[in-house]
Predict the structure.
Amino acid sequence: MSATSVKSAGRRDGSSSVRRLKPKQIAAEVQDILASTQVIDIHTHLFSPAFGKLGLWGIDELLTYHYLEAEFFRSSDIAPEEYWRLSKTERADAIWKALFLENSPISESTRGIIAVLSAFGLPTDASGLHEARRFFHAQSIERYMRRVFQMAGVSSVVMTNDPLDPDERAVWMNGGQRYPEFHAALRLDRILCGWPSHWQQLASEGYAVDERASGKSAGEVRRFLADWHKRMGPLYMAVSLPDSFQFPDDSITSKVLSEAVLPSCCEFGLPMSLMIGVRRQVNPKLRLAGDAVGKADLRALENLCHTFPDNRFLVSVLSRENQHELAVYARKFKNLLPFGCWWFLNNPSIVEEITKERIELLGTSFIPQHSDARVLEQVIYKWHNTRRTLAPILTNAYQLLHADGAEITRQKIQRDVNRLFRANFEEWTRRRAR
Ligand code: FIX
Ligand code: ZN
């Protein structure tokens, strides 16, 4: 499969859909189905064109992605303080030089740049940056965005929408966005994890909340969420939580989560997405690249699934050490849906390990991946890589099943891939996404 090999539709010869596959035929069918099944990308940091400059695309944004910045500081003498004084173009120049000219781009994130350039037929050698700037500069976002989604085999993406972000807020207050390829997700980090520095913002908007989230606060947060639910029409509410997250405890996080956010999710029929295990800003000099990972205590998740059986939880955990526990909890709690191989886990070796583990424990009842893309074109390489990693894993699963005596057909494989790429999410959100 090349990075541009996503097909617009599967095979149309009806006969093949009921044909029993021989073990040797399975690999080709799996590859073909993965390539032709459009994915719903359930967690990104992309923005629709309605958000103007918040939507990032083009080579300079790709090169200054925080995944590459973290790698850059390891291979360059430029210190973070000096780097942040540079313009965006100068930063991209420095990263190109250090990671692509002076070293081979063999890490996952740097290979992604090469895959994107190559997908557009652009040179990947020393002349690449100049040519790429010319190419990206000539694009106009609306048509280009659809072309990128088509190349990536993505039918729609879910954004990360922070109701307390002033730039985003302006768009939502002026009628919001109408691009069917983009869905909203109501992100609540500032409210759930940053209450002491954000409650006043709610208060200034007319919600009667206080510093300790006491008294009327929970009810008022629910009123705030209802207003934003109406404004954004989100597919889910979401928060990223530190490795130290505990539930229940006497924190404001626990209180607002249990008394306001989860009841609101129930009221609106929305799942709650929990992304657990980040250690924010272990090296603040690196800014967005300065976050790390820690193993979490997933008993907090057990307590949530148990205490709130009417809530549906979409869960991703950042630590490799937590993955097995997460899959086991999903076997215990029907209201828990594991998703994605998040951030530092999104490397082929780890995706392979986690996905095999999930298939063995959960069958097809999980969502294998989300892209977490921040820059539009990243969906091309991230989804290409996901399909490439999934192909041998699924092939092996069907070959084992065949060896154990089952009939394997294209139709069954298609049904399963649909479930992994789309239907599990649609069922969880009770919405048919584009
Ligand atoms: O909290 C999140 O949604 C994280 O995915 C991001 O904040 C993180 O910086 C990222 O981009 C990871 O891929
Ligand atoms: Zn994210």
